[in-house]
Amino acid sequence: MAELAKKIEESIFTNTGSSPYDVKYKTCCRSKLWNLRDKRNSEFVNKVISGTIKAEDVYKLTGDEMLSHEKYYQKQSEIRRMVENCVRYESDLVPMKLESDGSLSSCMSGGSGGTVWVSRNMLDKS
């Protein structure tokens, strides 16, 4: 186990600037140590111990690559949900002209301003 830890640390040291005072080195070490100590992520530890993930390659792994499958899919599901909440469908938006005085007018009125897209909900409130 000590030999494995030594290989991981050496690969981090070699590939992140070769200085124990380097911020990149410290951050990488902290991240890998955090994930290797996580009792809820035995999947990652087992992959490193079994050699599925080589000790020399651990330094390259991103946070997502070190997550267990369960946590990874939870995170992807959360990201998908956040994106869906942010995306507006075209049917929810109405084209309006933004006039030089900051007011909005219908695109049909032929105003001089640029087109902006406004939520129907905002128009219903005013």
- The unreliable regions are none
How much of the sequence lies in strands comes to 5-15%
The number of helical segments is 6
Structural class: mainly alpha
Mean pLDDT: 81
Give the SSE string: HHHHHEEEH
- The value of Rg in angstroms is 26 Å
From the N-terminal CA to the C-terminal CA, the straight-line distance is 67 Å
* Spatial ordering of strands, largest sheet: 2-1-3
Shape: elongated
Secondary structure: number of strands: 3
What's the number of structural domains? 2
Outline the biggest β-sheet: 3 strands, antiparallel
What's the multimeric state? single chain
Helix content: 40-55%
What does this protein structure show overall?
By secondary structure, this protein is mostly helical. The chain has 2 domains: 2-84; 90-125, no CATH class. 52% of the residues lie in helices and 12% in strands. The protein contains 6 helices and 3 strands; from the N terminus they run H-H-H-H-H-E-E-E-H. The protein has helices spanning 2-15, 23-37, 42-50, 63-66, 69-86, 120-125; strands spanning 93-98, 104-106, 114-119. The model has no long low-confidence stretch (mean pLDDT 81).
